[in-house]
Every structure is written in C-alpha cells, then in structure tokens.
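quick one before i forget lol
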Amino acid sequence: MALARWKDLCVDAGDAARTARFWGPVLGLGAETQDDGDVVLRGDRPERTVWITPVPETKSAKNRVHLDLVLPSYAPLIEAGAHVLEDHETSRYRWTVLGDPDGNELCVFPGDRDEPTALVVDAQDEVGAAAWWAEVLDARPTEGPDGRLRWLADVPGLPWDVWKFVAVRDRKAVKNRWHWDVVCPDADALVAHGATVLREPDDEVDWHVLSDPEGNEFCAFLPADRAT
C-alpha cells in the first residue's frame, strides 16, 4: 500500500519568469504568475504541474535532480535560451546535456519517443533509493540498462515515463534546486519508513518538509479533503 502519491515538481530559479518561459513550451504547460512571484506551469491534470520559485542564491553545484527528454532535435531549446554542456555516446545511447537559462541541467536523447522520458535523481545507493521510493509510492522497480533495479515504472501520477536513479560518488552538499512534492495522509508513516523531518507545519507553511535517505528534500501535503 502506498504511503504517498506524486503531487508536482518544484524548481528554484534566479529568474522565475525567464525559467518559466523556457520550461513551459518544453513541457507543453501553460504559465500563471502568482502574487508572491512564483510561476506555476499547469498541464491537463494536476500531477503535470511545475512550481517555479524565485530564490536569491545562485546555482553552485550540479543538480542532483533533472529531466531526460526525447526530442527530434534540441535546436529549439537552444533558440529558447539553453546551451550545450556535454555530448555523450555509448554503444547503445547518444545524448546531449544542456543547461537551461538558469543553468539547470537536462538531458536530450534524439528520437521520437523511442526512449522513455524520465525524472532522474543522483544517488550514492541508486538501487536502495529506487527501492525506498518504490515502497513509498507503490511503484514497480525495473532494470536500468545495467540490469540493476534502479528505475521505477508505473509510478502513480508521475508525468514522465520512468523515474531513474543514477549512481554518483559525491555526497549531496547543498539544497536541491529541483525537488518534488507528494500527497501523504500521514507524514509520521514516512518518518517511520526512513524519512527525516526538516521542517514541520508552522505559521508560514502547512506542509512537512522531509528528506529521503539520500538527503533529497521533498514536501508532503495532506490530501485536499484533510487540509485545514
């Protein structure tokens, strides 16, 4: 039984409006500017929502959370303000790492959806991280190209095909500029499962800020029918 369900994606940005102008067309989402300066990108269902929040701090490290996209060409992204960071090619795959106008990495695989779009998260224990989130979200662990169970399929509500966990050696050192939110009826159950409480609901926020065993921040909201 799932402990939580995917809710939406959140992005910190030095210039929220500029970042929204880039990602809205890329993801096929419409933009709405909020009174507090946040920009929300909305799609055809609530889970296809991206919140972009202006922050004063600049990006200081490689993002540990990014998106993999499959596109016929990345040229339109360059025209929209992205820039090429690296090209990669293996015996099975070819992809390009781009930086968006705020410097956030994304990977573009050439094709017409022959490869899955994905939410990608760096992890020191990628198999363990995948197993942890599979239990939280009642998703199905599946093999990555290396045969290890580090991908998640059938993630309820996830607006991308799969959720990938990728091995890295470096430890998480700064707050993630990209994170995700979940809907959860019982934050204590997530804590019992291994999450860490970073902030409890208070006069400013009515949700829990938690981190998973890898240190990735995420926010847990009560279901709408239980929110006060």
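fyi The mean pLDDT is 95.
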